[in-house]
Amino acid sequence: MNIRVFENDRQAAQAAACMIAAQILSKPAAVIGLATGGTPVPAYQELVRLTNAGVLDWSRVTTFNLDEYLGLPGDHDQSFKYFMMKHLFNKVNIAPESIHIPDGMAADPTEACMSYERAIREQGGIDLQLLGIGRNGHIGFNEPADAFSPITHVVDLTEDTIEANARFFASSADVPRQALSMGVGTIMQARSIVMLVTGTEKARAVRSMICEPVSPSCPASVLQLHANVTILLDSPAATAMNHCR
Ligand code: GLP
Which helix (H) or strand (E) holds 99? Predict the structure, then answer.
């Protein structure tokens, strides 16, 4: 694990944007895995700025998002599709057919997961996957469990995640109880992984991910086994790391 700690969240997000930009510049037809949540928003702003400045061209880029709520249509303002259109895709020159997000309204969600997995393979796999982390150590929507999930699948969200994401909805009762998510195995097959984590409320999850033995009880801990992973932290998110064994 390559771990970098920045003074503040803006600098950490800037570093994440730079790594994505570098990937696209070195391989214009790159396949990029993207994440939602509050954390990556400033990184997406920086990518839009670089695009407007003529540095980045998305015309040959393909994207795959980590996850989507089950039961939310893409035009619902809390769907991850809506989030991605608003923060990135509507602002850069990516081809609509190159955008992939699991279909939260699929009639057969299990088949939708299988076809998502196939689509990733057909594009030759993911070059760079951007990740955040949940307070409970989840990546994508892979919640703490007894085993790592191999492929894209339907997930039951934990109460902790529902509560954490309620801030985006009118109330926690409105948060969908299930989602479609890339599996831990899907994520681990990305050729490189960049994780962006900011804020003290993530410090314990960061500590478990980095300092404790790899275990599905902290899904992010599996990243210790990836050969090319960079963890970008602001100093509040790094505060518990000095208690590492
Ligand atoms: C969400 C997403 C994750 C994200 C995490 C943290 O539920 N499924 O991909 O990393 O929670 O989000 P935030 O950045 O808002 O803290």
Answer: strand 99-100
Assess contact for 79 and 73: CB atoms under 8 A. yes
Structure confidence at residue 245 (pLDDT): 63
pLDDT higher than 80, residue 224? yes
Kindly give the distance from the C-alpha atom of residue 63 to the centroid of ligand 1, in angstroms, as a whole number: 18
Q: Which residue, judged by its Cα, is nearest atom 9 of ligand 1?
A: 140
Structure tokens at 5: 């700690």
∠ CA 95-96-102, nearest 5°, is 130
pLDDT above 70 (res 106): yes
Q: Using the predicted structure, report yes or no on whether residue 242 has a pLDDT greater than 80.
A: no
Task: Provide the pairing of β-strand 192-197 with 99-100.
Answer: unpaired
Handedness of CA 12, 56, 129, 152 (dihedral sign): positive
- Amino acid present at 21: A
Query: Could you give the angle at the alpha carbon of 100 between the alpha carbons of 186 and 193, nearest 5°?
Result: 40
pLDDT cut 70: percent of the chain above it: 99
Which DSSP category does 136 fall into? T
> What H or E segment, with its residue span, contains residue 233?
strand 229-234
- Ligand 1 atom at shortest distance from the alpha carbon of 36: 9
- The residue type of 113 is C
The confidence score (pLDDT) of residue 233 equals 98
Domain architecture of the chain: domains with CATH: 2-181+189-196+211-217 (3.40.50.1360)
Query: How much is the average pLDDT of 231-245?
Result: 89
Token code pair at residue 62? 């393909």
Query: Which of 133, 153, 206, 209 maximizes ligand 1 atoms within 8 Å of its Cβ, making it the mutation to test the pocket?
Result: 133
Q: Is 117 in the pocket of ligand 1 (CB under 6 A)?
A: no
